[in-house]
Design goal:
heterodimer, A: 394 residues, alpha/beta, 7-stranded mixed β-sheet, 6-stranded mixed β-sheet, 12 helices, 40% helix, B: 301 residues, 8-stranded mixed β-sheet, 10 helices, 8 strands, 15% strand, globular, binds thiamine diphosphate, binds iron/sulfur cluster
Chain lengths: 394, 301
């Protein structure tokens, strides 16, 4: 199929379609709504062969996906913010059941106060549920990652679910050219879901039973192990994708102009594209700066981050969410990864773009300047806050 | 109609760890006899969920998915969708939950599934409280009952609101079949399941499942308690097929509710006046049921 022009949300839907998801269960929430509408259209027109359960809540959406996946079907859903929060219990259930469900999450701020704009608080709050987390920066990456995520998740050594993230509106509702690969090629890349164990009347088993303290810990350890092992598989799958489709998304961390950089920023999602512009501008002025884009946050790419620490003197971590009590999650995890590293660059946290606040290139240039000078003034800075300096909140 | 014999095949293994005299175990056993081997079942948190004992045991000879407390119906819908996606249409998909998991926390998912008309069988085994967590009130706890969250105390703080009527709630969803049944009358239960199992859409069974532990009676009396619930019409036996009510079994002579109440510790604090209130409610409900059956008769196809 030739290039198409579509939104990130359409890319989610086409990703699910090309992956041949067999069961879709979803509930609408802004800004995810057009994902479920598109899937409904694709199913209704017969273009996509799937059962679409129009559930009455996100909690039920995930419950239905879990049961469908346990029965041996490839399951897909999408949500955002409050929908994701409502699923919390079931996210843990999906990972604990070792079911390779793939879900789109359109990152949106949490209320109150109500906000529908881009912010990572929703998915960051779910980082301990046992799901892999991919943060995308383009619609192309969204489509490709949905398919890649199934391949990683369904690997018999992995079998953990995956979230494919998009920034609200910046990606979900923006049209971009997207190359939609031919179904045949995707089929070659992603074989049908073949679970090692499933509900089957000819071989009846009980799944998700009560386990005593004698066993529970081993079950949890196996999830931990699978999450560790997924690093390699994520990398391999992205490489295989590149071989087949001619584009890579960077595996776990995508590097930009890092070759000879003195300072780097770590960021995720669409602000990385803005950061590229800022970095180019700075490079034009002879400043040696680069970007490390966190494509995957779970599992956390600590090796890649330690490698970057070897190369630069100073790192600025940009967080579009905040863990009340101490620092943004990308920052605390970066700092945590570096504690064991022999090289200890200066690291500082910039909390930015909360609730969809615009991040123009000049803001990132300003941050890069601070990072280069290893500007101090506390570990964490809420950048561009209207109460800061002389500006009053009005 | 010839005499119905309950299928002999046992699809529930022996050795479960439910209490002696548990009505819930009988509900499961008869249900599976009625449905047979090609059945998949979801069970939420409740007494039945722990009956197997612990991993790696399974007390059923059919595939079983333990699910989160409030997701019984949504999980059954998920299994059904997966089977449909695979082109498998000869398997019964069952959600089997307690009264708490059905009438309270799981009612949203059940309502959603019923409204969509998902092709599942939902069984609420009703022991009239949250038993797995130690006898707390549920929406299905009857008026007058003691539970640990409706303790009588010095203020008489027993349950003050009537039992939530799940059959009526399900009938209001315009489903093809809803029925009550009792573990004291297995033939009636099995017959109803066999009648409804191949109907398309959501089928709902409300199964009266006495609980010696929570109701405070001696374990050997479970069936007797069930029989008395029927004879007093505290728990009448009826079915609703496409909106048409039919009383499937009538007591030859109705007994006073005291006969039922006096055997159970959970009602022992009730004075004659309160029992009179219960009697009046039971009378009224019974008459309304008969009237509904009479009135809806003409809508039978
Ligand atoms: C979300 C959630 N809240 C609470 C519980 C605790 N819980 C487990 S079983 C149960 C009561 C079950 O009652 P019911 O559905 O009536 O079944 P029974 O145990 O009486 O057979 C409760 C409250 C839970 N498992 N999940
Ligand atoms: S508490 Fe009641 S319902 Fe639960 S296992 Fe015991 S008898 Fe059965």
């Amino acid at each position: 199929m030739p290039m198409d022009v579509m939104t990130g949300n359409s890319a989610q839907a086409y990703g699910a379609k090309l992956a041949r998801a067999e069961v879709v269960a979803a509930y609408p929430i802004t800004p995810q709504t057009t994902v479920v509408e598109k899937l409904a259209d694709l199913v209704a027109s017969g273009e996509m062969k799937a059962q679409f359960i129009k559930v009455e809540s996100e909690h039920s959406a995930m419950a239905a996906c879990i049961a469908a996946s346990a029965t041996g079907a490839r399951a897909y859903t999408a949500t955002a913010a409050h929908g994701l929060a409502l699923m919390h219990e079931m996210l843990i259930w999906a990972a604990g059941s070792r079911l390779p469900i793939v879900m789109g999450n359109i990152n949106r701020a949490m209320a109150p106060p109500w906000s529908v704009w881009a912010d990572y608080q929703d998915s960051i709050a779910e980082r301990d549920t046992g799901w892999m987390q991919f943060y995308c920066q383009s619609s192309q990456e969204v489509l490709d990652t949905v398919i890649q995520a199934y391949k990683v998740a369904e690997n018999h050594d992995i079998l953990i679910p995956a979230m494919v993230m998009e920034d609200a509106f910046y990606l979900s509702h923006t049209f971009e050219p997207v190359d939609v690969p031919p179904q045949k090629d995707v089929d070659d890349f992603l074989p049908p879901y073949d679970p090692p164990i499933k509900l089957d009347v000819d071989n009846p088993v009980g799944l998700c039973a009560l386990v005593p303290p004698d066993h529970y810990m081993e079950f949890r350890f196996k999830i931990a192990k699978a999450m560790e092992d997924s690093r390699k598989v994520i990398q391999e799958v992205d490489e295989e994708w590149e071989k087949k489709f001619g584009r890579s998304h960077g595996g776990l961390v995508e590097r930009y102009r890092m070759e000879d950089a003195d300072a780097a920023i770590i960021a995720a999602g669409t602000m990385s594209s803005t950061a590229r512009v800022a970095i180019d501008n700075m490079r034009d002025k002879g400043k040696k700066v680069g970007l490390a884009r966190l494509r995957v946050f779970r599992p956390f790419p600590y090796e890649e981050i330690r490698q970057i620490a070897k190369e630069v003197d100073s790192i600025g971590v940009l967080d579009r969410s905040y863990t009340f009590g101490h620092g943004g999650a990308f920052y605390t995890e970066t700092a945590g990864a570096l504690y064991q590293a022999p090289e200890q660059p200066h690291v500082k946290n910039y909390v930015i773009g909360i609730g969809g606040r615009d991040i123009p290139p000049k803001d990132i240039e300003e941050i890069l300047e601070k990072v280069l000078t290893k500007e101090d003034g506390g570990e964490v800075e809420w950048f561009g806050l209207r109460t800061s300096g002389s500006k009053e909140v009005n | 109609m010839g005499k119905l014999t309950i299928p002999q095949e046992e699809l529930m293994n022996s050795g479960h760890i439910g209490c002696l005299g548990c009505g819930g175990t009988l509900a499961m056993r008869y249900l599976l006899k009625a449905l047979g081997k090609r059945t998949m079942i979801t069970i939420p948190a409740c007494c039945i969920a722990i009956m197997s004992g612990i991993y790696p045991r399974n007390f059923l000879k059919v595939p079983l998915l333990d699910v989160a407390f409030e997701t019984t119906a949504a999980s059954a819908s998920g299994i059904r969708a997966a089977l449909d996606a695979k082109g498998i249409h000869d398997i019964y998909v069952v959600g089997f939950g307690g009264d708490g998991g059905t009438a309270d926390i799981g009612i949203q998912a059940l309502s959603g599934a019923a409204e969509r008309g998902d092709n599942i069988i939902y069984v609420m085994y009703d022991n009239e409280a949250y038993m797995n967590t130690g006898i707390q009130r549920s929406g299905a706890t009857p008026f007058g009952a003691w539970t640990t969250t409706t303790p009588v105390g010095t203020t008489g703080d027993f349950k003050k609101r009537p039992k939530k009527n799940m059959v009526e709630i399900m009938v209001a969803h315009d489903i093809p079949y809803a029925a009550t049944a009792s573990v004291a009358y297995p033939e009636d239960f099995v017959r109803k399941v066999q009648k409804a199992k191949d109907m398309d859409g959501t089928k709902f069974f409300h199964v009266f499942s006495p609980c010696p532990t929570g109701w405070r009676y001696s374990p050997e009396m479970t069936i007797q308690i069930g029989v008395l619930a029927f004879q007093t019409t505290v728990f009448p036996m009826y079915e609703v097929e496409n909106g048409v009510y039919r009383v499937t079994k009538k007591p030859a002579k109705r007994k006073p509710v005291t006969d039922y109440i006096k055997l159970q510790g959970r009602f022992k604090h009730l004075d004659d006046e309160t029992i009179e209130v219960i009697q009046k409610t039971v009378d009224r409900n019974w008459e309304m049921l008969l009237a509904k059956a009479e009135f809806t008769k003409k809508f039978a196809e």
